């Protein structure tokens, strides 16, 4: 039942035919998809035309009929009793034809002025026609054109000045036979004005060709405009399911597809010659005056070598002229007013002007919104909008040759990470010139990032120049300038830096993440315990910061601050949850926590960190090497050789001093502890190590006893086990924090 209802609904909806319209030069087009099995009848009356279809339909969809056309030719479209009434606003001609067997095309054309026919003209009067055949207007036009073509002089002789050109030899074996010649016209209009018009046209073409003013259409055969050519191309039988465009079909007849030029191999080539070395014959090529004689010589077509697209155009972007006014708001209204035309369609040029205005003032999100409304937005502006927003997809194509880029183009690609090779001194100077050609808002937006990039690439002088320009502008907040000074390596006294950071965190919210990161890093460098309230504020700020380099740097400092406050469990949890952070940042955070626990002599935390993170801790460098060596020695001193080996095994390799190769004396505590000889350890060592050895001896003695069946809960026994567990925890803590004593004599 449901399937029947669904099928009926689909059939009912299919009986309403949508009506599409389009405006053209000289005519207005109506396209209706009526289907292959439906017929139509178009009746013309005074000032109107009525379209009816068979079988009948439910109606026509006229919702968007006048979206694209005016009412100059068609004043209204109405549905009356299942038929479509076309009310005309002019004395226009109405014609209809079927396209692709499925579409009905109706053209309302402007009335053409037709001169009255001469009584002596047999073509116009119809005296030469058969009584059983009615001549149509198309037949009349074809006959007139055929008569005019027969009366034309030889245009080739006029163009060549009487010089005869030998005809080109054709291989008739590989080409299709020539079509039969057209029958001669029944009457030639020799005494009409067409002969004089043809002679005048031939003389004008000859003079134009002699003066070099004649420019035929390239790649077009000479028979393209011949109205007598009715042969369709090889793809004429193929039909498309898509409806025809209102401008894709001619008003009277569809344009024929051009047959492709036949390809035949060169006779003297080998049988195994690849297809791309075949020779294309000349009949399909257009006739050009400058290459007419070259067509007799067959040439080999060489395949074109594709070249990769260039990342730069080499032209200056002129970004300093993008703002529409000195003030952002005053120029915005005029730009938005010209965005749409009278039909509420987006004007692309006006939209691009608005996008450039937004970008020049640092509004990347708004610019990207209007770029998304364009059919083909410029890639340069799309990448710049993402770069202004600080998004990770602000990528240009990798530069193949930096010399092909203007200064502004090179600057944007350098900021977007499209420069793979190390930047030279000349390229750093080009980046400076591109920076100073930016509008002031973009200088404030890109200046700190550019200075940091130049400093990281070893160009300290250009980085200082950018930094000084930002300081002189007076537009950049002090917190951002302070963070920039610390990033480019400008040293200040610790007290001065701390006071400036405290003031920036208290009063200025322009750059909270870099400022908070530098404040926590200063405490870490001095070994200070960060205030708990500041750590809590930093955690809240981290949750509000999107992923990126700033968030990774703040995460590292919060992790180290938690360890300095003694919150080892919180620091370990952050390390475990932050494994997807940038690798260098995560490795540095592990090094910071190990260094802090070494300073606090926290052996238990070092043991836990070794088992949890030693397999993934592969940091290199002198600072990480010192932390690795000190951690391993501290674990070895506590008798934790396995943990020390884990710390040393996953590093980049250490050059350690030569170890004493002499065999240890029998009975040494480290050897006895490593071998698990608890009886001997308990005899020669006292303190917590001896107590733990006694417990291990008792555990080994009880390991072979079978477990007893549970006879119920004995509260006294349970209380004794809880108390013993507390004593055991204190003993283990003492073992981890106390070095092995010398053995008793």
What's the topology here?
Layout lengths: L1 H13 L1 E8 L3 E7 L5 E7 L2 E7 L4 E3 L12 E7 L2 E6 L4 E7 L3 E7 L12 H4 L11 H15 L3 H6 L32 H18 L52 E2 L14 E2 L47 H10 L10 H13 L3 H8 L7 H11 L17 H9 L9 H12 L3 H17 L3 H14 L4 H10 L6 H14 L4 H15 L5 H13 L4 H16 L3 H10 L5 H17 L3 H11 L8 H16 L3 H9 L19 H7 L2 H7 L2 H16 L12 H23 L8
Parallel strand pairs: 1-5
Antiparallel strand pairs: 1-2, 2-9, 3-4, 4-7, 6-7, 8-9, 10-11
Helix pairs in contact: 6-7, 7-8, 8-9, 10-11, 11-12, 12-13, 12-14, 14-16, 15-16, 16-17, 16-18, 17-18, 18-19, 18-20, 20-21, 20-22, 22-23, 25-26, 26-27
Span from first to last CA?
101 Å
Q: Please, what is the average pLDDT? A: 73
Strand content: 5-15%
Major pleated sheet: 5 strands, mixed
Strand arrangement, major sheet: 5-1-2-9-8
Low-confidence stretches: 1-14, 114-136, 158-165, 167-175, 230-241, 247-283
Number of helices: 27
Q: How many strand elements?
A: 11
Q: How helix-rich are the residues, as a percent range?
A: 40-55%
What integer value in Å does the Rg equal?
45 Å
Shape: elongated
Structural class: alpha+beta
Please describe what this structure looks like.
With 745 residues, this protein is an alpha+beta fold. Among the domains are: 16-109, Immunoglobulin-like (Sandwich); 139-164 and 183-228, no CATH class; 319-447, no CATH class; 566-655; 669-704 and 714-737, no CATH class. The protein has 27 helices and 11 strands. The protein has helices at 2-14, 122-125, 137-151, 155-160, 193-210, 328-337, 348-360, 364-371, 379-389, 407-415, 425-436, 440-456, 460-473, 478-487, 494-507, 512-526, 532-544, 549-564, 568-577, 583-599, 603-613, 622-637, 641-649, 669-675, 678-684, 687-702, 715-737, and strands at 16-23, 27-33, 39-45, 48-54, 59-61, 74-80, 83-88, 93-99, 103-109, 263-264, 279-280. Strands 5-1-2-9-8 form a 5-stranded mixed sheet. Strands 3-4-7-6 form a 4-stranded antiparallel sheet, with no helix packed on it. A two-stranded antiparallel ribbon has the order 10-11. Helix 11 (425-436) packs antiparallel against helix 12. It starts with a helix and ends in an 8-residue tail after the last helix.
């Amino acid at each position: 039942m449901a399937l029947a209802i669904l099928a009926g609904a689909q059939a009912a909806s299919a009986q309403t035919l949508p009506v599409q319209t389009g405006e053209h030069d000289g005519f207005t087009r109506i396209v209706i998809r009526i289907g292959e099995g439906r017929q139509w009848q178009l009746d013309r009356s005074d000032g109107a035309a009525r379209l009816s279809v068979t079988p009948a339909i439910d109606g026509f969809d006229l919702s968007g009929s006048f979206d694209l056309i005016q009412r100059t030719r068609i004043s209204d479209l109405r549905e009356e009793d299942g038929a479509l009434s076309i009310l005309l606003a002019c004395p226009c001609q109405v014609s209809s034809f079927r396209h692709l067997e499925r579409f009905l095309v109706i053209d309302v054309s402007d009335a053409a002025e037709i001169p009255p026919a001469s009584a002596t003209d047999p073509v116009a009067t119809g005296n030469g026609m058969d009584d059983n055949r009615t001549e149509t207007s198309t037949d009349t036009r074809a006959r007139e054109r055929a008569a005019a073509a027969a009366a034309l002089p030889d245009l080739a002789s006029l163009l060549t000045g009487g010089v005869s050109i030998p005809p080109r030899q054709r291989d008739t074996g590989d080409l299709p036979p020539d079509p039969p010649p057209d029958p001669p016209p029944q009457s030639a209009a020799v005494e009409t004005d067409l002969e004089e018009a043809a002679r005048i046209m031939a003389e004008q073409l000859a003079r134009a060709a002699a003066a070099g003013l004649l420019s035929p259409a390239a790649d077009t055969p000479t028979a393209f405009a011949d109205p007598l050519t009715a042969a369709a191309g090889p793809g004429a039988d193929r039909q498309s399911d898509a409806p025809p465009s209102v401008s894709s079909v001619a008003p009277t007849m569809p344009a024929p597809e051009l047959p492709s030029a036949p390809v035949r191999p060169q006779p003297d080539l080998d049988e195994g010659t690849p297809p791309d070395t075949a020779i294309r014959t000349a009949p399909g090529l257009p006739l050009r005056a400058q290459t007419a004689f070259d067509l007799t010589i067959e040439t080999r077509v060489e395949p074109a070598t594709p070249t990769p697209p260039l990342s730069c155009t080499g032209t200056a972007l002129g970004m300093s002229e993008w703002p529409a006014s000195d003030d952002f708001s005053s120029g915005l209204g005029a730009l938005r007013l010209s965005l749409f035309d009278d039909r509420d369609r987006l004007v692309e040029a006006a939209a691009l002007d608005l996008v450039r205005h937004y970008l020049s003032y640092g509004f990347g999100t708004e610019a990207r919104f209007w770029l998304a409304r364009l059919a083909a937005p410029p890639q340069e502006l799309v990448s710049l909008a993402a770069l202004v927003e600080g998004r990770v997809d602000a990528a240009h194509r990798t530069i193949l040759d930096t010399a092909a880029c203007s200064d502004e183009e090179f600057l944007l690609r350098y900021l977007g990470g499209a420069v793979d090779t190390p930047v030279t001194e000349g390229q750093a100077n080009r980046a400076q010139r591109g920076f100073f050609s930016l509008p002031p808002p973009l200088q404030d937006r890109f200046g700190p990032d550019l200075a940091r990039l130049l400093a990281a690439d070893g160009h300290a002088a250009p980085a200082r120049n950018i930094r000084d320009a930002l300081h002189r502008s007076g537009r950049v907040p002090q917190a951002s300038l302070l963070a920039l000074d610390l990033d480019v390596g400008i040293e200040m006294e610790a007290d001065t830096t701390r006071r400036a950071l405290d003031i920036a965190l208290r009063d200025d919210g322009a750059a909270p993440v870099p400022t908070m990161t530098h404040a926590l890093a200063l405490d870490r460098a001095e070994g200070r315990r960060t205030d708990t309230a500041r750590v809590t504020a930093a955690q809240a700020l981290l949750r509000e910061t999107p992923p990126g380099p700033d968030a990774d740097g703040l995460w590292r400092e919060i992790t180290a601050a938690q360890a300095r406050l003694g919150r080892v469990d919180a620091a370990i949890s952050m390390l475990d949850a932050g494994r997807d952070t940038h690798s260098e940042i995560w490795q540095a955070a592990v090094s910071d926590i190990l260094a802090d626990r070494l300073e606090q002599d926290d052996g238990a935390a070092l043991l836990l960190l070794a088992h949890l993170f030693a397999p993934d801790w592969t940091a290199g460098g002198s600072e990480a090497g010192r932390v690795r060596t000190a951690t391993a020695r501290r674990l070895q001193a506590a008798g934790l050789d396995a943990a020390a080996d884990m710390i040393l095994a996953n590093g980049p390799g250490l050059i350690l001093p030569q170890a004493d190769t002499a065999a240890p004396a029998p009975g040494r505590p480290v050897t006895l502890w490593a071998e698990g000889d608890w009886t001997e350890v308990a005899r020669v060592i006292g303190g917590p190590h001896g107590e733990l050895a006694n417990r291990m001896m008792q555990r080994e003695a009880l390991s072979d006893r079978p477990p007893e069946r549970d006879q119920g809960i004995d509260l006294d026994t349970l209380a004794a086990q809880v108390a013993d567990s507390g004593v055991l925890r204190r003993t283990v803590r003492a073992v981890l924090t106390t070095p092995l004593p010398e053995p008793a004599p």
